[in-house]
From TrEMBL:
Chain positions recorded as 3-phosphoshikimate binding sites: 23-24, 28, 168, 170, 316, 343
One GO BP: aromatic amino acid family biosynthetic process
Pathway(s) of this molecule: Metabolic intermediate biosynthesis; chorismate biosynthesis; chorismate from D-erythrose 4-phosphate and phosphoenolpyruvate: step 6/7
GO molecular function: 3-phosphoshikimate 1-carboxyvinyltransferase activity
Name of the protein in its database record: 3-phosphoshikimate 1-carboxyvinyltransferase
Subcellular location: Cytoplasm
Similarity field: Belongs to the EPSP synthase family.
Length: 431
């Protein structure tokens, strides 16, 4: 396990960067490109470990996928061309690969074994396995069929009308993808809209899919056709530098070409709510997704209550928002975010224990946290717990401490942002 001594104390950030491609969109581009007949070219692909797990899963089913850095070329014979893999499929740390892939594999008349790393093996899979079982897939696994490793025997699915019991784009997407293989129409009716990259991208691959409010209806037995996908920068990665610029003196940062899909821009709303100086410029559209450049400058953050429908739109940004709240002018309350307990770590516990170690005053609640503002953070020996977003939150926290911060298990940051420290060094002018 590698460690890093973070030497960013009291640095300010200035300049512009582009962050790597969006993780959610990169996964889907590989999955749908593999299901589509013909050629799919992906540019600005996120070559993070999670998305590489998705590539190897489809390579193990015989799809030709070639990659050079951030460009991926897929050539597939479509769904009929997929083969039964001879080896178990390794999902690594990736929840998105697990849940979406389970939807796809459920539609194929083969047997699959899936496993993941220690963290993924603890994360709930019944949320997706249950509706897929209802559609006809035979799925079993550890802990009464709830946890990885799992086995799937797919094929012969029937459609369902599904109301997800949790707010999860992964679950919605897994069911919609299984719906692609079923007879008739499958609908997913969400209580709150979650990220809609599956719906948008399936349309780009030629699928018929109807979206009305929070209900999505997919037509079964459809064929996808290869297409070119340009992946926007990941707003969840950009969030770390947006907050870093806001909480350090004399900073001004522009993150260019960031995806601005409205189901993902909760971080912009929260930064505005918390009084951060933020501007979105150069708005345009690539491959059906809005993008733009986001500018943030040093600000005096205000405390806020963060709850309700914005939560699914900031679900991956809450660790860095919690750090921001430690610098606000009062008490910040985050609630309705119980889903944080099912991420790469229990992110309520890991954020609370890490920020506390760094000198913050934070209390975990059942579904969120209460964070006191105006706190002076200090150096500490910390660990990421193998969670990329906790690792990056710690690195940004070290900009505020007098003493050095030691980060154990920093390599997990490569899951979503392999060049994170290069970009932080660039913005802080540290080599
Ligand atoms: C994702 C959805 C979110 C998010 C994850 C990626 C996706 O998870 O936390 O990083 O690509 O669909 P849930 O939908 O389970 O909340």
């Amino acid at each position: 396990m590698s460690s890093k001594v973070l030497k960013y104390q009291h640095a300010s950030l200035s300049g512009q960067i582009t962050v790597p491609g969006d993780k959610s969109i990169s996964h889907r581009a590989v999955m749908f490109g593999s299901l589509a007949k013909g050629k799919t070219n992906i540019t600005n692909f996120l070559a993070g470990e999670d998305c590489l797990s998705t590539i190897s899963a489809f390579q193990s089913m015989g799809v030709s996928i070639k990659r050079d850095e951030n460009t991926v070329w897929i050539e597939s014979d479509g769904i009929e061309g997929l083969k039964e893999p001879t080896e178990p499929i390794d999902l690594g740390n990736s929840g998105t690969t697990a849940r979406l892939l389970m939807g796809i594999l459920s539609g194929l008349p083969y047997h699959f074994t899936l496993f993941g790393d220690e963290s993924l093996s603890k994360r709930p899979m019944d949320r997706i396995a249950n509706p897929l079982r209802e559609m006809g897939a035979k799925i079993d696994g550890r802990n009464n069929g709830r946890l990885l490793p799992m086995s799937i025997r797919g094929g012969n699915l029937s459609s369902i009308d599904f109301k997800p019991p949790v707010k999860s784009a992964q679950v919605k997407s897994g069911v919609l993808l299984a719906g692609l293989f079923s007879e008739g129409f499958t609908t997913v009716e969400e209580e709150t809209k979650t990220r809609d990259h599956t719906e948008n991208m399936l349309k780009a691959f030629g699928a018929e899919i109807d979206v009305e409010g929070t209900t999505v209806k997919i037509h079964g037995k459809q064929k996808l056709h290869g297409c070119d996908i340009e992946v926007p920068g990941d707003i969840s990665s950009a969030a770390f530098f947006l907050v870093a610029a806001a909480i350090t003196k004399g900073s001004s940062v522009t993150v260019e070409n960031v995806g601005l899909n409205p189901t993902r821009t909760g971080i912009i709303d929260v930064l505005e709510l918390m009084g951060i100086s933020i501007e979105v410029v150069e708005k345009r559209t690539i491959g059906g997704e809005p993008i733009g450049d986001i500018k943030v400058a040093s600000s005096t953050p205000k405390a806020a209550v963060i709850e309700g429908d914005v939560i699914p739109r900031i679900i991956d940004e809450i660790p860095i928002i919690a750090l921001l709240a430690t610098q606000a002018d009062g008490q910040t309350i985050i609630r309705d975010a119980e889903e944080l307990r099912f991420k790469e770590t229990d992110r309520i516990d890991s954020v609370v224990s890490t920020l506390t170690k760094l000198g913050a005053s934070v209390k975990g609640t059942k579904d969120g946290m209460i964070i006191e503002g105006n706190t002076l953070l200090h150096g500490a020996v910390t660990e990421s717990f193998g969670d990329h977003r906790i690792g990056m939150m710690i690195a940004i926290a070290s900009l505020l401490t007098d003493e050095q911060v030691e980060l154990h298990d920093d390599e997990c940051i490569a899951v979503s942002y392999p060049t994170f420290f290069e970009d932080l060094d660039k913005l802080t002018s540290i080599n």
